[in-house]
Amino acid sequence: MRLSVAPDQHALGRDAAGLGGTAIREAIAARGHASIVLATGASQFEMLEALCQRTDIDWSRVTGFHLDEYINLPETHPASFRRYLRERFLAHVPAIGAFHLIDGNAADLRREVDRLNGLIDALAIDVVFAGIGENGHLAFNDPPADFDARDGFKVVALDEACRRQQLGEGWFATLDAVPDQAISMTIRQIMRGHCVVLSVSGERKAAAVRDAVLQPVTPLCPASILQRHPNCHLFLDPPAAKHL
Predict the structure, then answer these.
(1) How far is residue 228's CA from residue 74's CA, in Å, rounded to a whole number?
(2) Are 187 and 149 in contact (CB under 8 A)?
(3) pLDDT tens-digit readout, 101-113
(4) Is residue 81 within 8 Å of residue 94, measured between CB atoms?
(5) Which of 2, 5, 125, 145 could join 222 in a cystine, given CB atoms 3.0 to 4.6 angstroms apart?
(6) Which residues lie closer than 8 Å to 91 by C-beta, 6 or more apart?
(7) pLDDT band at 169, cuts 50/70/90?
(8) Residue 236 lies in a domain
């Protein structure tokens, strides 16, 4: 895992988008196409803004997925990850070849998960843009995470620490309003990505960053598995790096 500490969140986002964007360009140059995965949440604001400004990427040759989505949360809700990506990414790169949004409101969740797995199984993922949760989660794989799940996506339960993070970031008015289930990309699928670009900011993430980087790999800190990824890049601001 390669670490980089930027002076502030804007520099962090610029640096993460710079490395990730270059990896996208290289994949297109090598194979004529690139596949990416995008995370959402407050940690990704600056990175996505900088990525959308990359005029040197032929977005028509890019296929995208996102890491996770709440179950039974309307897309009109401010916390909807589909809404987040439409507003913060897709509206700015309308020429993208394809982007497969997770329908957390599907009448048949098993069928939706099977649809997503069929799509992602057919592709090699070039870049996974992600973050680390306050409880060490990776996507919505809360501790203790399942490192062995073989499907690309699955339905998961959200623990209280994860739900309190969403409340603390201002996405929901009360803890009871935070959904307790989601469709999430699995740990194995994230680890299949050729390049993983992590953007993590804020002192509230510092303990999780420490455990993910310095402690042994354990399902109790899901992001620690990325110590075993051969091409993982962790971009931090000083508050998030305070325990390193």
Answers:
(1) 36
(2) yes
(3) 999 999 999 999 9
(4) no
(5) 145
(6) none
(7) confident
(8) no
